[in-house]
Amino acid sequence: ILVNVAGGTVRRIRIEGNTILNTQGASIAFDGGAGSADVLWVIDNHIEGTHDTAVGFGIWLAGSIWDAAIKFIEGNYVGPIGAGVTAGDHYGLRGDFCFLINNEAVGAQNDGFAFGNIGLSENDWVIQGNRARNNGDQGFMFYRVMRSAIIGNFASGNGQAGFQARGIQRNQIVGNHGRGNLAQGGIVLLNDLEGVPAGCLDNTILGNECNDNTGTGIDEQGLANNNTILGNRVGGNTIAQITRVGANTLVARNIGYRTENSGASVGTGAQQPIAHGLSFTPTAQQIALTPGSATALPYHSAAPDATNIYVTAALNQAWYWATAGQ
Predict the structure, then answer these.
(1) Residue 302 neighbours by CB distance under 10 Å
(2) How far is CA 206 from the centre of its chain?
(3) Three-state DSSP class for residue 13
């Protein structure tokens, strides 16, 4: 199915309930560089077996006239490719004002869902409840997506990252699941590929689960900064659970990646190594007498390391400690 606009205005296009099997090239494509479009619905289509071409797309927004249209892409299934396809994404998407809800991408040659392209920025999307599994590269690839809500999506068994982002800014990335992805990890924040690159900035990454990936659970790289990584659950990732590079990025209260801890001990009269339980060397530590104690204050015997703090306190002196960092 091809909708190609060469001028004029296209209104209220609706493509719904089709089964499309074994096509050559794109199964549903929207092209055109002249004219305008207002509202587009692509709903409940089943696509499978694109073949016999070097590039195969399932649903493809190719033409610039669709950028400003309000787009509803809901409940579609794009399944495994056929023979002969060496490149292509199941969903190749661009523009502003799109609701991408409850779609599935399985077995793409490249990305399950791909958003944007070099030289463009994509604004004001709602990306919710979609599933990407067993695709060749990324489950979801976000390129310069801005001011959008990325909520409750699932990515598993993809060849690279579950969710790869390049140069995204001011997004809410909430309640997504990245599990068992095979190379880069769960959520990966990278620079864009523009002539003057920009990092991922000012995003809120909240309440996601990134487990059992080959790579890092949540991975901030390059020029990324000013992100909030809060309340996520990570574990079983092969390289690291969370990495942070931005000086102003906040990492706090993630299950599986401690950024603060505390405890109590009793002095021995000699240096005591105390396991602090953080995922890194603490940047701040505090020690103090247990309230009601009357002997000498304990003191730091050595700088902390990635495993322990080191404290000396008088024999039988009760004391407590706290460590923090990010």
Answers:
(1) 12
(2) 10
(3) strand
Cα–chain center distance at 304: 32
- Return mean pLDDT, the chain: 90
Q: Which residues contact 294 (CB under 8 A, 6 or more apart)?
A: none
Distances (CA, A) of 276 to 179, 262, 281, 321: 28, 7, 9, 9
Instruction: Look at residue 23 and tell me whether its pLDDT is greater than 90.
Output: no
CA atoms within 13 A on the CB side of 9: 6
pTM metric for this prediction: 0.89
Going by C-alpha positions, the residue among 55, 91, 48 that lies closest to residue 73 is 91
Please enumerate in sequence order all residues whose Cβ is within 8 A of that of 234, keeping only pairs 6 or more positions apart, or say none.
186, 209, 210, 211, 217, 218, 241, 242, 254, 255, 256, 257
**What is the gyration radius of the CA atoms in the chain, in angstroms?**
25
C-alpha to C-alpha distance for 108 and 55, rounded to whole angstroms:
11
| Highest mean pLDDT pick, 4-18, 170-184, 312-326 | 170-184
Q: If you write DSSP's letter for every residue of 254-302 in order, what string do you get?
A: BBTB-SEEEEEEE--SSEEEEE---SS--SEEEEEEPTT--SPPPEEEE
Instruction: Measure Cα distances from 1 to 49, 51, 65, 283 in Å.
Output: 15, 15, 17, 58
201-220 burial code (b ≥16 CB/10 A, e <16): bbbebbbbbbbbbebbbbbb
Q: How confident is the model at residue 53 (pLDDT cuts 50, 70, 90)?
A: low
Contacts of 119 (CB under 8 A, 6+ apart): 194
**Residue 149: beta bridge partners?**
126, 172
DSSP string, 19-80: EEES-SS-SEEEE-SSSEE-EEEEES-EEE---SSSB--SEEE-SGGGTTSEEEEES-EE--
Q: Output the six-digit token pair for 133.
A: 């599994």
Residue 146 tokens, joined: 């801005």
